[in-house]
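Consider the following input, taken from an annotated entry for Transcriptional regulator (Streptosporangium amethystogenes subsp. fukuiense).
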Amino acid sequence: MPGEGYRILLGCRRRSEALRACRLTFDQIAGVFALDHQVGPLRLYRYAHGRTAGDVVAAYNDLDPAGTATLRAARFYDYEAWPQAGRRPGAAAVAVFARIYQTTARRLVADEVYASYGVRDRDLIDRTDHRHLDPHYRREVSAPAIAGTKGTKALPPLVPAPTLCADLLRAVGAEEADVKRRELLFELALVLGGTPALGLLRHLTPPERERLAVAARHQHPIDAATLDVLERLTARLWAMDEASGPQQVLPIAEAKRAMVDDLLKQGSLTSPLRERLLRLYWSLSHMTGWCHFDLRDYVVAARRYAEGLTAAHELRAPALLAHLHGLAAYMALYEKKPTVAMDHVFAAEGWARESGNPLQQAATSIQVARVISSTRRDHGGLRLLDRATDLAGAKPSDPNLRHLFWLNQDRVASYGVFCLIELKQPDRAITEAERRLARMGADSVRERGILQLEYATALIQKREIPEAVAVIGQATNIITTHSSERLAKSVRQVRARLQPWAESRHVRDLDERLRSLAIVSDV
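Applying the prediction step yields:
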């Protein structure tokens, strides 16, 4: 390393150590260094960590699970020099650097460089977040939106504040280089809830964006092709919710639901188009209700489910009625309202039987099994799950039941873990949880966290405390990048079960970890 560069690094290392002693994060230190050093983000973060290029290259190669990474110092310097010189790093490489530097991948990429990546690469950069590896990082806890609720965040207004518009303009500038396309993207993002919508809109072609903008402006009656676009975006929202949580999805879903509500008021709709729009309105009511529930905003969640039920009654769709009654029962059970839960599952059971659809009957049987296992301690819930497993093997036959995209026989089995815990059968619960976790895909983020916590609960029932603490620790890693407040509360509930062992070394270490991530304020 040249002498001047090494002197700069040593100076940054000393300043970084002093700032770390004041409990600043690496993100904050990189921001401080940016005032004095006109270099790219990759080099700023290396300075913040006080590491040489050789250190970083070695760490990068060590992180390759196959042991085939061959990054060399010369190529790394090329990455740091981009875009003024050198070579642009691939998105996968940026994701690895984010882990080394304990930050988000987006912070390692300048706006002009970010705009040069393709759609899939930008998705990878947006979702890569390793800030939880920084011991000084504190997880953000949202402020309540409604008195009496915890952990929810007020939705942005439909007309964003000037500061939000400025943030959106900067984000759109990084997303799209063409001026005309940038204006259209800005307009659509405003309609669909602001900056979070950019991750969704980037998957549309320019003609699809034009078509969506025409519908949003109410310039022409909506057509089937525009409805196709809206339905595809809704499917992507579900994937976004599972990966990153409701905080990012909810503003988009609420804005889109308001847009569909306006479109339903058009007098020129044909009967088939109105039915499709009404089904989309039901789907978005379903989604927003679920997201509010996941943020523990039960009042608004119940309102959205009720509005979805009204749409389902107008559609005369028993399967849709059954599904929302089942979700309402799930929420009531979580709120410790067993009689309300029983009321909803009885309604769900009747409508599912009326639908005649085996997949909807399977989904409803899951909710009935959960309720009777929890409220009655009745082994009949396990028999219902066996029946649901058989029904879930049926092939989807109704294109109008897209809400059951998640349902398969493995998912039914994972819901059985909850029932086995309620029935005090920890051995079977542990076996089932281990089997399901081994087969679970990487895209099942929140589901993995919930199942890990149920697995930990079963281990606590068996008094296998070190093993339970280790599993809870794995679940907390998910919480650092996922905004489900329900998942965070579940961690606190499982930790409460460990209170008899609060003085053990394993539990004390867990408590410190939970405090550092702001999952608990005190234990």
